[in-house]
Amino acid sequence: MKKKVLIVTDEMEVGGSQRQIVRLIKNIDLSQFSIELAYFSNPSFLLDEIKPYCHKIWFLNKTKTFDLNFFSQLFKLCRRKDIDIIHCFAFSAEIWVTIAKILGFSRKKLITSIRGRYEWYGKVQWFLKSVASFFSTRIISNSQSGADYALENMFAVNKNKISIVYNGIEAKPETEVSQYELNTEWCNQNIILFVGRLVEDKNIPCLLRAVSEIKGISYQLKIVGDGPLRGSLEQLSSSLNINVEFLGERFDVDNLMMSSKVVVLPSFREGVSNTIIEAMLNKTTVVASCVGGTPEIITHGTDGLLFKSDKALELAGYLQQVLSDDELRKRLALNAYKTVTKRFAIERMVEEVESIYTLELETKG
Questions:
Q1: DSSP 3-state assignment of 294?
Q2: For the whole model, what pTM was predicted?
């Protein structure tokens, strides 16, 4: 008999956690598991991708902090007898489901998540995270760095509850990911690419300052993504007088990566970045800040380059280096492809999550 898993998250806009939810749902063994998804806000095209694989998708419209209609819908879902496991992918989802458990609306196995280092959490957030973790039977972290940081800040949480499951991505045949075979306008230019949300954590001003320091090499910086900081970033770009284009949301990110010389992620904070993994899979050289789970993906000088967080001049030096040295860039890109196809295959991620589900269902309590 199929076991039913209810995945709960806050929003379904295009982001790292949401992409992992989609990959899990599309690749899980549907002969063994029946999946339902509940989310609270911000639908996107990702929902269309998973509709054929989901038994049911629930939109629990949360319009205010204390929304009685939302609570009623969520508690009713958590109480259903046919649900075997509730797997939360977001902080707010964890809190509301934990409240449901405390109030007696759910006795289901609860799996919570660690999807970054959460360095911006205050005492209240860590208290709530600790409570949710206490009521969890399993915590899945997508990096060792995130798990270690959470254990340092949470109270009374058994480290044996935590399982490390790295993000997964669909591998491609090597013949499909050679940027040097693409016949696009970008391939003949020194394209520096950023892909991600335009938010504070991504520290895009550091990238803008870095490219303003590039000397003697023509380049074009392309920024893919959208977010609340777009206006201020456009103003900063104008004041720095740099060659940059803001492309907004795109559906051809793989092609853009393959057509670029380097992908840069200058974040202040990261878990295990999907952008980095995707760039490595597409054989594009990565230069990234040495934060969070990034050093678990990239070995500096072997399959990418790492710079100290917010050090724009160091980043500029690495960009200058990879744009002017074809052999270095090709070597890093090829090694990156080998690394990511070995360690971050989507099949490995799904198998590990399935094993956790199975183990939780076989364990009493």
A1: helix
A2: 0.77
